[in-house]
Amino acid sequence: MKTIQGEPSAEAIRTLNALRKAVQQKLDEKRRLGHYYVIWQDGRPVFIGDDAPDVGDAIDETAGTGGPP
After folding, report:
1. Within 10 A of 30 (CB to CB), how many other CB atoms are there?
2. HSE-up (13 A, CA, CB side) for residue 21
3. Can you point out the beta strands (E) in the chain?
4. Could you tell me which of 65, 62, 34, 32 has the C-alpha nearest to residue 50?
5. What is the DSSP letter of 9?
6. CB proximity list for 50: less than 8 A, separation 6 or greater
7. Block means of pLDDT (10 residues each) for the chain, length 69 residues?
């Protein structure tokens, strides 16, 4: 993958803002419906919501796999 350094283009900024808005809308929808959601926090997936599964031990076993670098 080629990495370009410097300021992001106007198109890249618009794209990022659109993605942020879409994610925020989906999270708000899940909250309103009472569904849990998963976010990445401190290098680990975190399940948030009243109906979130209890996966504490399962996450410890898979830590470091499948997440962002």
Report:
1. 15
2. 6
3. 37-41, 44-48
4. 34
5. P
6. 34, 36
7. 84 97 94 89 90 68 51
